[in-house]
Amino acid sequence: MKLIHRLLISLYTAFIVFTWLSFFVGPNGLAESRQLEQYKEKLVKGNLEMEKINQKLDNEFRRLESDPDRIALEARSLGYYRDNEGIFLLEGYHVNRKGYSVGSLFREYSGKTSSIAAIRLTAVSLGVVVFFFLTIFSRNKNDYTIRRRRYSEARYN
């Protein structure tokens, strides 16, 4: 096989490998699209949960504005008591405090795709490997043909 044919096959192999890897695992590839879809679903779910929390806090705020008993209960939960009130601490009983963790619903997107440089390096290295295999196999074929001719010439002479 001629050198130009081996080079063309190697370049074609590198091109095909680069194209497929870019399509599947590249920065704009199929894997990245799936990760972005999953991230979008997480954001939508987080947004719905934030709306529920917002509605719940809005309802609590309205109750605190208008209900004096609710205001007194919230003040007690914060540690404010009237002059004639006392506190009993029961061993083994823990008060459930309401709280919301800030920033736990939304996280920054961190896509983990292959870089284009790694894809290029893989494609070029595979093209070089194909070139060397074609070179080795084409030499063996030519050597075999030459030896066969020599053997047949020596046999009939």
Descriptive report:
- This protein is mostly helical and 157 residues long.
- The chain folds into two domains: 1-29 and 113-157; 30-82.
- The protein is 71% helix and 0% strand.
- It contains four helices and no strands.
- It has helices at 3-25, 30-66, 68-77, 116-156.
- Helix 1 (3-25) runs antiparallel to helix 4.
- The longest helix has 41 residues, at 116-156.
Biggest beta-sheet profile: none
| Number of distinct beta strands | 0
Shape: rod-shaped
What average pLDDT do the residues reach?
80
Radius of gyration, Cα only, in angstroms? 37 Å
Fraction of residues in helix: over 70%
- Termini separation comes to 30 Å
Beta-strand content bin:
under 5%
Give a short summary of the structure.
By secondary structure, this protein is mostly helical.
Which properties best describe this structure?
mainly alpha, 0% strand, 71% helix, 157 residues, 4 helices
